[in-house]
Amino acid sequence: MNRPRPTSRDVARLAGVSRTTVSLVLNNVPDVKISPETRQRVLDAARRLNYYPDVSARRLVSGKTHTIALVWHRGPDATYRDAFLPGLLQGITRAARHYGYHLLFRPIDPDDPDEAYVELARGRHTDGLVLSGPRSDDPSLLELYRDGFPLVLHGQLPGTEVPSVDVDNVRGAIQAVHHLLSLGHRRIGMITNAPLAYISSRQRLDGYRQALEAAGLTYDPELVQFGNFDEESGRKAMLSLLDLPTPPTAVFVASDMVAIGALRAILDHGLRVPEDIAIVGFDDIAAARFVSPPLTTIRVPAFGLGWTAGELLIRIIEQDQPEHTQVLLETELIVRRSCGAKEGGGK
Amino acid sequence: MNRPRPTSRDVARLAGVSRTTVSLVLNNVPDVKISPETRQRVLDAARRLNYYPDVSARRLVSGKTHTIALVWHRGPDATYRDAFLPGLLQGITRAARHYGYHLLFRPIDPDDPDEAYVELARGRHTDGLVLSGPRSDDPSLLELYRDGFPLVLHGQLPGTEVPSVDVDNVRGAIQAVHHLLSLGHRRIGMITNAPLAYISSRQRLDGYRQALEAAGLTYDPELVQFGNFDEESGRKAMLSLLDLPTPPTAVFVASDMVAIGALRAILDHGLRVPEDIAIVGFDDIAAARFVSPPLTTIRVPAFGLGWTAGELLIRIIEQDQPEHTQVLLETELIVRRSCGAKEGGGK
DNA sequence: CTGAAAGCGCTTACAG
DNA sequence: CTGAAAGCGCTTACAG
Asked: Least CB-CB distance to B102: which of A82, A87, A104?
């Protein structure tokens, strides 16, 4: 800026008090007696000068930044994950604002070193980190955690106690398959959202299996194909399912993007959805509403994940000992037309 | 963190040098002669201690934060704007990283005071601001600008010299209408993306008009309806157009969201797209690919807008005197099926 | 009730 | 080549 910024010294001079008093008044320090007149003089002076305390100085002395960061890994599933970014970001920033924190957004591109985010913690840019899409073999992460640096994962790191927030993939998959079962389907295929190296993929498959078994059906590996985040993978996987001697009458596709590809494959094959084959997706991305027929799916609460992760992190930062540090959020079944149910379910 | 962070004093002690030397070595200050042995000792000590300089202290002395902020106004068009957020954010953070800057993300919710972002500038949280979706009547904005605080608008503030980056709405609309003209349409309607209070809306309407007039057609207000960001507004607007004694054979809808509503209205009316009525949208949101028929549209370069805004801002911060401080980015015509063109255009 | 002083952790003239 | 000292702009014991 052109004119030099006013400092607390300038305010003190104008108000005719010491810098101590300026600080005391402006920070509204409790249990300190300052005459209303003095207080008012300080306030007026600060306003006249358009004074804002320098946040770096303040951070230096307090040792707190009142900032958290969202570290956003852009992996091979970047396009897919982008669908959730606005909701997640809104949730996390809302939580941050609510507790008086700022939010630093730090994407990690594939060509960044994996531990590019470490400086945010060690250099005291932030008081804590939300890590989204972490790689489970990241040693820097566990090191930070062991050093007591506040951390929350968006996702899960099985076998650790690192605090995390995720969607309940198992129950979500159960909801999806249960819905199909309730519509009378017995031969239900599945296409995963991703290779099984992804934990969400394993969990959704697990839910599928549990739902079948709870209904007294046996799990048939022949009916399971593997998607890989995008439409094309869904198209191919569906083609394999259609090639079966007895194709399924319904399929649970654990990702809307993949489901859209599967849908296309069915339609291209001259079959109808839901009459010949019913589909339930997962995620409820925006596009799910717009395809024909609109996709029945399992909604992932992006805003809720963001809010919960942000709040949990801040509570950890402020030593507020949260009871649960590994949180799973519920999904919601969104019935549209691709499953053949009437609104409100039923056969 | 549990154990106290190491400071430059600790590094100095371990390396057997002064803090000055530590700073000189770690910052790679040029034109200063330090023996390779000393240098190495410092580097080793820093590594041994896992030392990261405290960024607040550094900022305090340098007066620079190496941080920019994206201020994101969530207005009535929040849902619409969210479609561009991931791309914009990626562009802006890429530019930031490229120049060694961090990115603070600051949404302004409708219930926030309008000037909630001012503290980011005045309190020295950041060296500069990208403001997205600014209200033209915001006095704090012009005040900051006059005080010389680095600012770039995503959007435009007509009648000012505030640096800005936006898409060329006029030319985008011309592309759309020109495409329809080239397909032989003469009676082309328009539905705006938003009320005319929005500058993008005025500009797109202007482009529509220019394209018609360049083709020797007269502008007919009867053929123009007003959208309001969402599907429902597009549905209603289209209904009005269909009610005309002679409905248009093609319509340019200056927003994909609105266009999707218009599409629905046409289909519900028992007409076909593109055979009875052709449509061209604007924005190229993800959903445009998924509707039936897929929507021909004008692509807005979200990543490019972000990158350009970020880079421009940083050049202003670093006093790099950019030649142009008000940038318009080109759009791109994306031909899909809703216009009836074959791939590559032509009648 | 209010002020002088120390200190947060760095960087940067300035000496030697 | 390297170190002692000042200072960035705050806050916070500690005196009075």
From this structure: A104
Question: Which residues in chain B land under pLDDT 50?
Answer: 1-2, 344-347
For A10-14, the CB contacts below 8 A with 24+ separation are A10/A49, A10/A51, A11/A42, A11/A45, A11/A46, A11/A49, A11/A51, A12/A45, A14/A45, A14/A48, A14/A49
The model's pLDDT over A117-154, given as tens digits with 9 standing for 90+, comes to 999 999 999 999 999 986 767 888 999 999 999 999 99
A109 interface with B at CB cutoff 8 Å:
yes
How is residue A330 written in tokens?
């519920």
Burial of A51 (0-12, 13-18, 19+ CB in 10 A): buried
**What does the alpha-carbon distance between residue B49 and residue B3 come to, in Å, rounded to a whole number?**
11
**Is A148's Cβ below 8 Å from some Cβ in B?**
yes
- The reply to whether B136 falls in a domain is yes
User: To which residue do tokens 């980011």 refer?
Assistant: B120
Whether residues A296 and A196 share a domain: the answer is yes
Write down the pLDDT at residue A17.
87
Residues in chain B: 347
Q: Of the ranges A158-167, A302-311, A336-345, B265-274, which one carries the lowest mean pLDDT score? A: A336-345
What residues of chain B lie within 8 A of the CB of A53, using their CB? 123
Tell me whether residue A346 is in a domain.
no
Q: How many domains does chain B have?
A: 3
Query: How far is it between the farthest Cα atoms of chain B?
Result: 91
Dump pLDDT digits (tens) for A195-221: 999 999 999 999 999 999 999 999 999
What is the helix (H) or strand (E) element at residue A28, kind and residue range?
A: none
Q: Are residues B214 and B310 in the same domain?
A: no
pLDDT digits (tens, 9 = 90+) for B42-95: 898 899 999 999 999 999 999 999 999 999 999 888 888 999 999 999 999 999
B26 touches strand C (CB under 7 A): yes
Q: Are residues A43 and A143 in the same domain?
A: no
Strand order in the sheet with A128-132: A326-329, A164-167, A151-154, A128-132, A67-73, A102-108, B102-108, B67-73, B128-132, B151-154, B164-167, B326-329
* Average confidence (pLDDT) over A52-79: 93
Taking CA atoms, A103 is separated from B67, B194, B205, in Å, by 12, 31, 38
Sign of the C-alpha dihedral computed for residues B129, B131, B136 and B138 taken in this order: negative
CA–CA separation, A307 and A68 (whole Å): 13
- Name the DSSP letter for residue A244: S
**DSSP characters over A109-138:** -TTS-TTTTHHHHHTTS-SEEEEES--TT-
A3 part of a folded domain: no
Q: pLDDT at position A288, please? A: 95
Question: Does residue B21 reach within 7 angstroms of strand D, measured from its CB?
Answer: yes
**DSSP single-letter state for residue A325:** S
CB A281 within 8 A of CB A253: yes
In a domain, A228, yes or no: yes
| Residue numbers of the domain that contains A48 | 8-53
Number of Cβ atoms within 10 Å of the Cβ of B74: 18
Residue B346: CB atoms within 10 A of its CB come to: 8
